[in-house]
């Protein structure tokens, strides 16, 4: 999903793959996460057979096919309940394994957490390798510009056939949040302004670019653009505010 940034680059929390340092267990977890994403996509698109859609253009199985046309609503319900039972058993099995502790739940000192668990490239809802909610977006540094690629499927749909605008905006928040690091500091999102030029389609390679514009004291300004097959679909501008305490994450204190 990401490519490594140069050592010393404060944006590494989003970009550093650190593949050579990943344990076998973490690599296996990433594979599990990928399969959970597949499960979400497949479950979302599961046809209950309430409507006769007819033959699929791509040849995918349909309840109207000869081998399945005899299935009744009761049959389909039984199949889905069996799948639900399997999913419940797997969720229980995973839930019984040790989990990453959280300060607000477990009362632990999270500063002692393993480095990989704290990186955004591991936990982000946008490009996190260990987060099944992430689309995911692949991000990399191109000089001072952060570039990204995404491929949104059915669970991310808003208008029919189009990506939900909230996901378009969330990706901008993440890329601009990373790009602000070119200023040498990081702040929390203050304002994020999104202009949707046209609908962003599903099942299409979506490319993002974001950069640092300028800094005014504790305020860091950034910009971003989103394209579908080279056509501009959305633009963004953002202002990030460095905390008065001085820093967050991998940032640096504000001047003076």
UniProtKB/TrEMBL annotation:
Gene3D superfamilies the record matches: Hotdog Thioesterase
Protein name from the UniProt record: Thioesterase domain-containing protein
Lineage: Bacteria, Bacillati, Actinomycetota, Actinomycetes, Catenulisporales
UniProt source species: Catenulispora pinistramenti
Highest taxon above the source species: Bacteria
Keyword field contains Hydrolase: yes
Signal sequence interval, chain numbering: none
InterPro entries: HotDog_dom_sf, THEM4/THEM5_acyl-CoA_thioest
Sections of the chain in a coiled coil: none
Keywords of the record: Cytoplasm, Fatty acid metabolism, Hydrolase, Lipid metabolism
PANTHER family for the chain: ACYL-COENZYME A THIOESTERASE THEM4 (PTHR12418:SF19)
């Amino acid at each position: 999903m990401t490519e490594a940034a140069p050592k010393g680059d404060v944006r590494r929390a989003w970009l550093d793959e650190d593949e050579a340092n990943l344990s076998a267990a973490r690599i296996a977890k990433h594979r599990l996460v990928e399969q959970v994403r597949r499960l979400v996509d497949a479950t979302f698109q599961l046809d209950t057979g309430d409507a006769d859609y007819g033959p699929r253009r791509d040849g995918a199985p349909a309840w109207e096919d000869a081998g399945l046309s005899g299935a009744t609503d009761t049959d389909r319900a039984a199949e889905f309940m069996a799948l639900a039972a399997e999913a419940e058993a797997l969720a229980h099995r995973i839930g019984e394994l040790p989990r990453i502790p959280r300060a607000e739940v477990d009362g632990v000192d999270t500063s002692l957490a393993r480095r990989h668990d704290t990186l955004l490239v591991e936990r982000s809802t946008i490009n996190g390798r260990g987060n099944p909610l992430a689309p995911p977006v692949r991000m990399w540094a191109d000089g001072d510009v952060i570039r990204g690629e995404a491929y949104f499927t059915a669970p991310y749909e808003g208008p029919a056939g189009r990506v939900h605008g909230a996901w378009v905006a969330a990706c901008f928040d993440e890329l601009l949040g990373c790009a602000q690091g070119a200023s040498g500091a990081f702040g929390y999102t203050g304002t994020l302004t999104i202009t949707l030029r046209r609908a962003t389609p599903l099942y299409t390679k979506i490319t993002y670019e974001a950069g640092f514009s300028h800094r005014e004291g504790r305020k860091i300004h950034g910009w971003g653009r989103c394209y579908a097959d080279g056509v501009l679909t959305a633009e963004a501008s953002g202002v990030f505010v460095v905390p008065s305490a001085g820093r967050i994450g991998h940032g640096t204190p504000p001047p003076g």
